[in-house]
Design brief:
The complex is a heterodimer of chains A (207) and B (194). Chain A has 207 residues and is an alpha+beta fold. Chain A is 54% helix and 20% strand. Chain A has a three-stranded mixed sheet. A two-stranded antiparallel ribbon of chain A has the order 1-2. Chain A starts with 5 loop residues before the first helix and ends in a 13-residue tail after the last helix. Chain B is of the alpha+beta class and 194 residues long. In chain B, 49% of the residues lie in helices and 13% in strands. Chain B is built from six helices and five strands; from the N terminus they run H-H-H-H-E-E-H-E-E-H-E. The radius of gyration of chain B is 28 Å and the shape is elongated. Classes of the chains: A alpha+beta (207), B alpha+beta (194). At the A-B interface, helix 1, helix 2, helix 3, strand 4 and helix 5 of A face helix 1, helix 2, helix 3, helix 4 and strand 2 of B. Strand 5 of chain A pairs parallel with strand 2 of chain B.
């Protein structure tokens, strides 16, 4: 429901995975394959020499160090900042506005998400078969979508629960005069495992 | 009241039944950040002329360039470890990462149910059909299979066909997607007082 960029997640894992694989394979190849080992022994010191030579061509004032290190530091800082943005970009996508319609030329009608969330929440709160419920609104591809997540008691029929919540949603449709897309998520979880199986329900069960 | 707008739940259902790989991606990002911070710290210490934490950056480069002339035990072990980590990351990047959930068809909304909920509902019904307590029924639900393990109460035989019928009937009512096939295993030994 949230707007985590999943392709980006996988891309990051893929790139880091490939780089790690490359580094690991290079280490093993250099140390164990005679041909590569000989090549590396011949060329590595030259590359190393060129690199340190380059560092010496751009000295940093009289400090004995080099601008090269500053450049590397800047690159490291950039990577860290980008990754931090990446981490804090995960999740999100909640929306406060359920509907916005330009009903007249002079004004618009705005319905807050709270209206639908509280209406559904109120209807679900009294139900004995539910241990907990939470209603939230997400913006998915520019449409507000309700997410109704419920934790149910052990042994409840998921189909029946889904139908009951659908009825609640249909009632909301009537109330609003609009059809709001919704996701119903039924989970068990830790609280369900600890709770008693039996309950006293308005629709009395045989057991 | 306006006609219900046709809304496609495909994207939502796909996202709700598959992992976002957020945990793995964040772990990878944190690891890379730590590596960057460490390298940065070593560079700054070197520039200030302080003692290195582990090794100064120039010394690292030097030892990297003489890698082919030094003992191989450490670099080979490191290399193999890196490759193992890399393969795990690549598996994470390419596998679909299915979550333990099923879809239930609905006309009004998209519905996803944890496998755990399906299992406990099946357990309740199997126990009722087998004349035993739900605590003596263990059900595991995976993407396409449900396995019902039932321990009958001593003295009251559990009828396999009755249990199978009850489980089948429930599964048929749920209309899960992906579809789930059930198999029932009845313990040969009963349990007293269950």
């Amino acid at each position: 429901m949230n707007n985590t960029n999943r392709a980006l997640n996988r891309a990051l894992i893929l790139v880091v995975g490939l780089l790690t694989l490359l580094a690991g394979a290079a280490l093993v190849a250099i140390t164990t394959l005679p041909v590569i080992r000989a090549d590396y022994r011949a060329s590595a010191p030259r590359v190393h020499g060129e690199l340190t030579g380059w560092f010496k061509t751009i000295p940093l004032a009289e400090t004995g160090t080099s601008w090269g290190w500053i450049l590397i530091l800047a690159a490291l800082v950039l990577i860290v900042v980008l990754l931090l943005i990446f981490i804090f970009r995960q999740g999100h996508g909640h929306d406060d506005t359920l509907l916005r319609e330009d009903t007249t030329p002079g004004g618009a009608t705005v319905i807050d998400s709270d209206v639908a969330e509280q209406a559904i929440q109120h209807d679900l709160d009294g139900r004995p078969e539910l241990l907990a419920s939470h209603v939230s609104t997400y913006r998915v591809r520019r449409t507000a979508v309700l997410k109704v997540s419920v934790t149910c008691r052990r042994g409840e029929s998921p189909r029946q629960l889904a139908e009951q919540i659908e009825n609640t949603l249909t009632a909301l449709d009537t109330l609003l005069g609009r059809h709001i897309p919704a996701l119903i998520q039924i989970s068990g979880g830790f609280r369900a495992r600890l709770s008693r199986r039996t309950r006293v329900a308005r629709t009395a069960h045989a057991r | 009241m306006s006609a219900p707008a046709p809304y496609s739940y495909r994207r939502i259902l796909r996202r709700e039944t598959h992992s976002s790989r957020a945990v793995l991606a964040i772990a990878v990002a944190v690891a890379v950040i730590l590596l960057c911070l460490y390298s940065g710290a070593e560079i700054i210490l070197m520039m200030l002329g302080q003692r290195a934490l582990l090794a100064a950056p120039q010394d690292m480069l030097t030892s990297l360039s003489t890698l082919a002339s030094t003992p191989i035990a450490v670099p080979v072990t490191t290399g193999i470890l890196l490759m193992v980590v890399a393969i795990l990351l690549l598996i994470g990047a390419f596998t679909p990462g299915r979550r333990a959930r099923h879809q239930i068809p609905s006309t009004r909304a998209a519905v996803v149910v944890d496998n755990e909920v399906i299992a406990s509902a099946l357990a309740r019904n199997a126990a009722r059909a087998g004349n035993t307590h739900p605590d003596n029924t263990v059900v595991s639900v995976s993407a396409r299979h449900a396995i019902v393990h039932l321990t009958p109460t001593s003295g009251t035989p559990a009828r396999r066909d009755a249990i199978e019928d009850a489980v089948q009937e429930q599964l048929a009512a749920y209309e899960l997607y992906p579809p789930v096939r059930a198999s029932v295993v009845i313990n040969a030994q009963g349990k007293v007082g269950a």
